[in-house]
Write a structure and sequence with these properties.
The protein is α/β, with parallel strands linked by helices. The protein contains 16 helices and 8 strands. The chain has a 5-stranded parallel beta sheet with strand order 2-3-4-1-5, sandwiched between helices. It has a 3-stranded antiparallel beta sheet with strand order 6-8-7. A hairpin with a 6-residue loop joins strand 7 (372-377) and strand 8. Helix 10 packs across helix 11 and helix 13 (313-328) packs across helix 14 (334-347). The structure holds adenosine-5'-triphosphate and magnesium ion (MG).
């Protein structure tokens, strides 16, 4: 009685969903999952070697290791520990039975919950209700001894547990072998962001051995670009992205040094690109795709357009020249700027400022984070060129605002 016999033609129903699953740009969506662990970490050989050096005796029956890993958000601490545990198990395949448990203490923030999680991983049916901490630890000891396996316990975001329950569990875990002849049943890797170092420092680092403290550095532009490139190779259809696009994403994420962010930015750009596809569009990421603002855009001085309102009118003309080119291209050279600046001056009937003044304006734009610059050596030649980009603004929007402001000035 409600549909009056009218049936929606199927093409109407599916039209707007056509792009779902089309996969014009995106080949492997799982590469962008938050819990995806890449087969290899890129650019972290030093810290991987350092970590491995703390476990040089792990192939021996009594060998074990202990490490504290600290570093800023998104610096790859979790990925470092996860890949290490996976790789060491493969590496020692025939020599020693290694198991690992990764507990995130944000979700299991008391020592009781942590031990329950460990046991749950090792023996899924193990009862935990009503058992005391001593009983749980005894079970753990028994399981490890029975299986003659070595267990690597990773306590990620361990500060959560330390704050709630103190460091007692750490001592217990480190001493788990004390009552038995065989030693080396358990290794411990603690992970924490460095901002919470104080909680760790006094209580734990000395106990774990200060030489066992690994500090992971934030990623710079190169590191972020390498990570995004790896995801693009693994996740996108070949030919749909360029190193220049990746570079801009890395520049955008460099404010935070957070690898997660560059991956999110790439993912957002891919989504946008995927959804504007039709039979006629070019199947590749373009500059408009990568300027999609994320909800979690960090609040830097650069992110709102009014930021440029106090520029002097001549600087605005230079910036307008930049914006017009960057609307179409990912980056431009200082030589391009001068050429286009000449065109803009003609349009506004203004005299061009000197080369040095233009250069000063560019420096000023960079300091205000309106543009970013990168020096590149010309392939095959000896010269170096400066490439300018605009990672924090949509050049089109900035150009409109400048045109509006310039109307009032000249
Ligand atoms: N060197 C790398 N190579 C490839 N992918 C990486 C690398 N470093 C980090 N990643 C990826 O970046 C994302 C963030 O890394 P991870 O979760 O390890 O950071 P974290 O330091 O543990 O951050 P948090 O402090 O928020 O816990 C993950 O998806 C991870 O796979
Ligand atoms: Mg982490």
């Amino acid at each position: 009685m409600f549909n009056n016999g009218w049936r929606k033609p199927s093409y109407v129903m599916s039209n707007y969903l056509d792009r779902i699953g089309a996969g014009w740009v995106l080949a492997n969506p799982e590469v962008f999952n938050f819990d995806y662990v890449p087969e290899e970490l890129v650019g972290r050989e030093d810290i991987q070697n350092e970590l491995a050096s703390k476990f040089t005796t792990l192939h021996l029956p009594e060998g074990s290791g202990r490490v504290v890993i600290t570093g800023p958000v998104g610096s790859g601490k979790t990925a470092l520990a996860q890949t290490f545990c996976r790789d060491i198990q493969r590496h020692l395949n025939n020599k020693r039975n290694i198991r690992s448990v990764h507990v995130n203490c944000r979700n299991a923030s008391t020592s009781m919950r942590v031990v329950q999680r460990i046991l749950h991983e090792l023996a899924p049916g193990h009862p935990d209700r009503g058992l005391s901490m001593g009983e749980l630890l005894m079970s753990l000891r028994r399981i490890l001894r029975k299986e003659t396996s070595h267990l690597i316990v990773v306590l990620d975001e361990v500060d959560h547990m330390l704050r709630r329950s103190g460091d007692d569990l750490l001592y217990q875990l480190l001493r788990i072998d004390e009552d038995q002849s065989g030693k080396g049943t358990l290794s411990l890797i603690l992970i924490s962001q460095e901002q919470v170092l104080d909680v760790l420092e006094t209580a734990v680092i000395s106990r774990m051995g200060s030489t066992n403290h690994l500090r992971v550095k934030p990623y710079g532009i190169e590191g972020l670009a390498a990570i995004a490139t790896q995801r693009a190779i693994q996740g996108l259809v070949p030919g749909t992205w360029t190193p220049e696009i990746i570079r801009i994403l890395a520049e955008k994420a460099a404010i935070t040094g957070d690898a997660r962010r560059v991956i999110e930015l790439l993912n957002a750009a891919v989504e946008r690109c995927e959804f504007r596809q039709d039979a006629h569009t070019e199947r590749r990421l373009i500059i408009d795709d990568i300027h999609v603002p994320l909800n979690k855009e960090p609040t830097t001085s650069g992110s709102n357009l009014e930021h440029i309102d106090d520029l002097n009118p001549n600087a605005m003309l230079v910036l307008l020249a930049l914006c017009r080119r960057l609307t179409k291209e990912e980056s431009m050279t200082t030589g391009d700027v001068e050429q286009l600046y000449a065109v803009v001056c003609e349009e506004y009937e203004q005299k061009m400022k000197s080369h040095t003044t233009v250069w000063k304006y560019l420096k000023d734009f960079e300091e205000r984070q309106i543009i970013s610059s990168r020096v590149a050596t010309i392939t095959g030649g000896r010269g170096r060129t400066t490439h300018l980009g605009m990672p924090h603004f949509l050049p089109k929007d900035l150009a409109s605002r400048l045109e509006m402001l310039l109307k009032k000035k000249f």
